[in-house]
TrEMBL record:
SUPFAM superfamilies: Winged helix' DNA-binding domain. The keyword Hydrolase does not apply. Keywords: DNA-binding, Nucleus, Transcription, Transcription regulation. This is Forkhead box protein B2. The lineage of its organism: Eukaryota, Metazoa, Chordata, Craniata, Vertebrata.
Length: 310
DNA sequence: TGGTGTTTACTGTACT
DNA sequence: AGTACAGTAAACACCA
């Protein structure tokens, strides 16, 4: 992939996919979520290329938001009138980018949605699931990846957006973010501190109108606090991706992979509870926080100076 | 009515 | 060559 000159993004297409661009925009926001219009605005502000043909790329971007499970829709609070919902990054989407390339992901991030009745034999419990409190078993379905949302086999059998949805990971992303080329490598770097405070997921919770006690880490004690011993490389591949281990879990390594998509369902609504915060939720939001700063600081020399405007 | 969101279909490209 | 992903177009529904 050609590396554009440092000042070459003015009018040519940036070397980022729509997914990357959208993730940047979301992560650059203080609340880690943005309405569609603000995502448009972020992209147009920073990449002049996208100030033209808006119909085309905005349609593509909307397609990506809906199609890719790495983006989750967060409904507006009643006191925040406006068009459309907020969009945020899925807690466990941090593993999808190919090494050094933000034009192409390593793999598509998918969230498994299983019909409640169809997964009784191997329940994957969604924290908002009405029956979740009755069953504390969190087993990934052996065929979880095959049953991931959008997979023809799955669509053919149970359909999409059922009223009782459970979630599990497809793509073997359980347990956190082990890859240095994660999406947060694009937009975040040092997550310590932020993680300890439980932000910014707390801001999301606050946005939704819930009180956010400072107990996120006590609820999820295994949620990683960036280890001091985490190896950090000083090498950077093209496009400003820091080659380094981001962190590892300090607690149990066999925690269940139960992401917490906030994608609402018609019956369950989109009401997350604090206990519904999966480890990845805190991890991702926290880790993404600082990397946005990294991005804007252009420490790698790969980003256009216009990115510094934020 | 326009913006938003979902879905399907298709093409091009990169990877295995 | 087959597969997966990205990009684009388009149709349609919903809603402020």
């Amino acid at each position: 992939m050609p590396r554009p000159g440092k000042n070459s993004y003015s009018d040519q297409k940036p070397p980022y996919s729509y997914i990357s661009l959208t993730a940047m925009a979301i992560q650059n926001s203080s609340e880690k979520m943005l309405p569609l219009s603000d995502i448009y605005k972020f992209i147009m502000d920073r990449f002049p290329y996208y100030r033209e043909n808006t119909q085309r790329w905005q349609n593509s971007l909307r397609h990506n938001l809906s199609f890719n499970d790495c983006f989750i829709k967060i409904p507006r609070r009643p006191d925040q009138p406006g068009k459309g919902s907020f969009w945020a990054l899925h807690p466990d989407c941090g593993d999808m980018f190919e090494n050094g390339s933000f034009l192409r992901r390593r793999k598509r991030f998918k969230v498994l949605r299983m019909e409640h009745a169809a997964c009784k034999s191997a329940p994957i419990l969604h924290p908002y699931h009405p029956h979740a409190q009755h069953n504390h078993t969190h087993h990934a379905h052996p065929h979880a990846s095959k049953l991931s949302m959008g997979h023809p086999d799955y669509l053919g059998s149970v359909g999409r957006l059922s009223h009782f949805q459970s979630y599990a990971l497809g793509g073997g992303q359980s347990g956190g973010f082990k890859h240095p080329f994660a999406i947060e490598s694009l937009i975040g770097r040092d997550y310590k501190g932020v993680m300890a405070s439980g932000l910014p997921i707390a801001s999301v919770m606050h946005h939704l109108g819930y009180s956010v006690p400072s107990m996120v880490n006590s609820v999820w004690p295994h949620v990683g606090v960036l280890s001091e011993s985490t190896p950090v490389s000083s090498e950077y591949p093209p496009f400003g991706v820091a080659v380094k281990g981001l962190y590892h879990h300090t607690g149990s390594s066999n925690m269940p992979a139960v992401p917490v998509p906030i994608k609402p369902t018609p019956t369950l609504g989109a009401v997350p509870s604090l206990t519904g915060l999966a480890p990845g939720t805190v991890q991702l939001c926290s880790r993404l926080d600082r990397e946005a700063t990294d991005l804007m600081e252009d420490k790698t020399g790969a980003l256009h100076p216009s990115l510094l405007q934020s």
